[in-house]
Specification:
The complex is a heterotrimer of chains A (350), B (267) and C (292). By secondary structure, chain A is α+β, with helices and mostly antiparallel strands. Chain A is built from nine helices and 18 strands. Classes of the chains: A alpha+beta (350), B mainly alpha (267), C mainly alpha (292).
């Protein structure tokens, strides 16, 4: 198995930064403190506080325009925050340009250098940080083997498929052993099948290299499958940060509950609870005989989803959805009962 | 009666309009070239195929001398205009010019919109006012001025089309500003630079009015000399030398446009 | 890129065009307010005599008599340049639209063919028409051969020949900017218009024309301005008998030796062009952007 060896950080970048471990042991790899970003009157980011730990796969998830890409560009050094600190190993890197940060990026459309070979692309960062020619060749070979493109070194980017270009972009960004790898919607240009493959591949590369990955995506499924932690963003703020299961099972507010998976939002009073509203996942709802049920209503619509059926039921507490196995014979207009276990109810902040 | 299938792309008479336009544009040029191979001294009476007028043009010392001036001036103006234009293209497409962008854009557009005769006489007036007498040097300066915008066209278009993602990626991989330019921007814009250089060469070679006003007796350019021949009358030599100029321009422009491989950047 | 570095990169072009084009235009402006020296060139004192001369003839006894001679020249030039612009527009718009509607490969080829003549020496392109139109030229040969006439018809040395030459010279200037705006029109807009019951004429008037206006404005400027000051077509095809602005300016600076008067005319032309440019820049993007 090929792994990314723990080479020292590239000289060009290293000279600006203390070695890891020089900072206090409690300091995370990256500490984002009070970062705000405005483009003229538009506030793209508002007081962001976020830690990125060593060896973790963190995903910034949110709809377009939520600020996730801006946050990524701040980490990469392509933009500089209007306020706040971005500390890497305890040192503020917010004002540094990209070439002075041991952080590399996999760009959205890969941004491979069209006039260089694959090997030239992968070796570029090493060359720029002063590696010797023979060392570069060896490292490039190692990286290409790692992304399973061992024999492609002499090709040009335009001779590769989308998936292969994606791998080259990964190899290029990982070659200088950055302390942090940023991925800007890396899979958005690939088709469904290839995307699934690359999700597994990305996760493998992250595990093998031990490098922290920060992924930006608007695809909730992608975020749930790959991440150690997810930061859900909206309107320039981080709404919730946590492990995928935590985000899915315990969304903090309506937005998170609705953006990741589907949710029935009910007023807490209708369930005899205190507080504002409560979310219940449709798949936790079971359809029962009307008589004994906690909730009753009329079937408003039936949607067949293949293995499952989604019922919309008009209840006194509002329209609710239930996702049930199979396609058992419900009828629009029929009366059904709805029920769910108590732990399916999640209290929301708003 | 069957209705025509709906197709808004179909322009009635469009094909014949296009054909007539192309005939209008190219037939006169084709006729000039045909006449230039006419053996007869009476230009419009066909006397058989001959290349003798090209030989006479080649042997004409005045034409050789003025052609030499034209080519020298064009080479010098091209080198200067291309170098200036590369720098200007980078500044305009990649740089920050707060408060100066409008002025820069307007100044650079100036040679394209001010009528040539005005450029010609103002340049003449200026050179005589400051007493600048560099011989062909005066021509080189005047030509550099109006070559810059033409050299700039393909370069700016290229910088805009290629976007900044490759340059950003290089910066992300620890390249300094100079390394980004040397390793990424320059190689990627090289075809556009070559194309810009050829366009300025053609523009300089083709110029007539400005050269006519600015050149003195010793630095007459070929088009100015040919104009003198035309004033005297329609002769086979004029046809031959015109056909040569036509051929050189066509060759260079086709090469320039093939290099950039995009839609021609004329006007 | 830092501001200083951007400025340094911009400097060579700006200085070259500034010193050798913008400053000379200002010098010509100054000259237009001086009096001509008998040896060519200019002398003090400042005067507006050059401008008065456009409208008034000075008799030997110093009295001024109103004259329309120069106004006629200016008027004829403006009319010819205007007709050239109108004719170019009438041909260029449908041509540009026709090209836009072709398949991409064919589009590239047609565009290439239409713009190619732009790069060919104007002197030679104008001379081609001399070859065709002169008394012993091809057109007369064909007419005589077909028995239409026995005598050669005088086709050269009139306003029609000048107009033809101007259209021939400047037509590509009109097609390309219009093409580049029409090319950007989202085809779904046209389909949407048809979908909403517009016919061909209404689609042109309500969709294409408004969207192509910046291109039309740019093209009009690029044709009108050089046509107004054109020298070669009037000289070679008009025989230089009736003066136009271009040949008038040239004449004043060569045999006429009246630099202030020549400058004054040049200032008038440039002012007109610059005003047109400003109007156009206000309306949309600067003309240089449309060149791409």
């Amino acid at each position: 198995m090929t792994t990314v060896s723990a080479r020292p950080a590239p000289q060009a970048a290293r000279s600006y930064l203390k070695a890891p471990g020089a900072a206090a042991s409690t300091e995370p790899l990256v500490a984002i403190r009070g970062v705000s970003m405005s483009f003229g009157p538009v506030k793209a980011l508002i007081d962001i506080n976020l830690d990125i730990e060593n060896h973790e796969f963190l995903t910034l998830l949110g709809p377009s325009g939520c600020g996730k890409t801006t946050l990524l560009r701040l980490l990469g050094g392509f933009e500089h925050p209007t306020a706040g600190e971005i500390r890497l190993n305890g040192q503020d890197v917010a004002p540094l340009p990209p070439q002075q940060r041991p952080i590399n990026t996999v760009f959205q459309n890969y941004a491979l250098f069209p006039h260089m070979t694959v090997a030239g692309n992968v070796g570029f960062g090493l060359e720029m940080s002063g590696w010797r020619k023979p060392d570069i060749a060896g490292r490039v070979e190692q990286m290409l083997a790692m992304v399973r493109l061992a024999d492609y070194g002499n090709r040009r980017p335009d001779q590769l498929s989308g998936g292969q270009q994606q791998r080259v972009a990964l190899a290029r960004a990982l070659a200088p052993s950055p302390q942090l790898l940023l991925l800007d919607e890396p899979l958005s240009a690939l088709d469904q099948k290839l995307r699934k493959e690359m999700q597994i591949e990305l996760k493998r590369l992250q595990k093998e290299s031990g490098i922290s990955f920060v992924l930006v995506t608007h695809d909730q499924e992608e975020a749930l499958t790959m991440s150690d932690r997810i930061a859900v963003m909206s309107a320039g703020r981080i709404l919730q940060l946590g492990a995928p299961a935590e985000i899915y099972d315990r969304p903090v507010n309506r937005f998170v509950a609705g953006f990741i998976g589907e949710a029935n939002i009910l007023p807490a009073a209708a369930l005899g609870r205190s507080g504002g509203s409560v979310a219940v996942r449709p798949e936790r709802v079971s359809v029962v005989e009307p008589g004994a049920a906690r909730h009753r209503g009329t079937v408003a619509s039936i949607q067949y989803l293949g293995s499952d059926t989604l019922l919309e039921v008009d209840t006194p507490a509002g329209m609710q959805r239930a996702r049930v196995r199979g396609s058992a014979g419900y009828e629009v207009g029929g009366t059904v009962g709805l029920d769910w276990p108590g732990d399916a109810e999640v209290e929301l902040q708003d | 009666m069957s209705a025509q299938p709906f197709n808004w792309r179909h322009l009635p008479g469009g094909r014949s309009l296009m054909t007539s336009l192309l005939v209008f544009l190219y037939a006169p040029l084709a006729i000039l070239v045909i006449y230039s191979f006419n053996a007869s001294r009476i230009v419009t009476v066909w006397g058989g195929f001959s290349t003798r007028w090209f030989g006479m043009v080649w042997d004409n010392p005045d034409i050789r001398r003025t052609a030499y001036t034209s080519i020298t001036v064009a080479i010098m103006a091209t080198i200067l205009a291309t170098a200036f234009a590369v720098a200007a293209a980078l500044a305009l497409e990649r740089g920050r010019l707060p408060g100066l962008r409008g002025l820069s854009e307007s100044l650079i557009a100036l040679p394209l919109v001010v009528p040539e005769i005005v450029v010609a006489i103002t340049t003449l007036v200026f050179f005589s006012a400051i007493g600048l007498k560099l011989g062909a040097g005066n021509l080189v300066i005047a030509h550099t001025v109006f070559c810059i915008p033409f050299a700039l066209l393909p370069m700016r278009a290229r910088l805009r089309d290629m976007g900044q993602s490759a340059e950003n990626a290089a910066r992300d991989l620890y390249a300094s500003d100079w390394q980004v330019f040397r390793r990424i921007t320059l190689p990627l814009m090289l075809p556009a630079i070559a194309s810009g250089a050829m366009l300025s060469f053609v523009t300089s070679l083709d110029d007539f009015i400005i050269s006519m006003m600015v050149a003195d007796a010793g630095t007459t350019t070929l088009p100015v000399y040919v104009y003198g021949m035309m004033r005297v009358g329609v002769t086979p030599e004029v046809n031959a030398v015109s056909a040569i100029l036509l051929g050189v321009s066509l060759l260079l422009v086709v090469m320039a446009l093939l290099l950039t491989g995009r839609k021609p950047a004329a006007t | 890129m830092t501001r200083l570095r951007s400025l340094l990169l911009m400097a060579p072009s700006l200085l070259t065009i500034g010193i050798f084009m913008a400053v000379p235009m200002l010098v010509a402006l100054a000259y237009s307010f001086m009096t001509s020296s008998p040896y060519g060139g200019v002398q003090m004192p400042f005067s507006v005599g050059a401008y008065i001369q456009i409208l008034y003839d000075e008799d030997f006894d110093g009295t001024l008599a109103f004259t329309t001679d120069y106004l006629m020249i200016i008027g004829r030039s403006v009319v010819l340049a205007g007709l050239t612009t109108a004719a170019c527009l009438a041909v260029a718009f449908p041509t540009a639209w026709f090209i836009v509607c072709r398949a991409p490969r064919q589009r590239q080829l047609l565009l290439f063919l239409v713009s190619l003549p732009f790069w060919i020496n104007t002197l030679i392109r104008t001379y081609c028409w001399v070859l065709l139109l002169r008394d012993e030229g091809l057109v007369n040969h064909l007419l005589e051969g077909a028995g239409v006439t026995d005598e050669p018809v005088t086709l050269l040395y009139n306003d029609g020949a000048i107009l033809l030459g101007l259209i021939y010279t400047f037509l590509p200037f009109m097609v390309l900017p219009i093409y580049s705006t029409l090319e950007r029109v989202d085809h779904r807009l046209i389909e949407a218009a048809y979908d909403l019951y517009a016919n061909r004429r209404l689609v042109f008037r309500r969709i294409l024309w408004p969207l192509a206006r910046p291109g039309v404005a740019a093209g009009a400027l690029l044709v009108f301005a050089p046509a107004l000051g054109s020298f070669l077509a009037p000289d070679l095809l008009g025989g230089g008998r009736k003066l136009l602005i271009g040949s008038l300016i040239q004449l004043e600076f060569t045999s006429g030796r009246n630099w202030p008067f020549g400058s004054a005319i040049a200032v008038l032309v440039s002012t007109g062009v610059l005003i047109a440019m400003l109007i156009q820049a206000r309306r949309g993007r600067p003309p240089s952007e449309l060149h791409a």
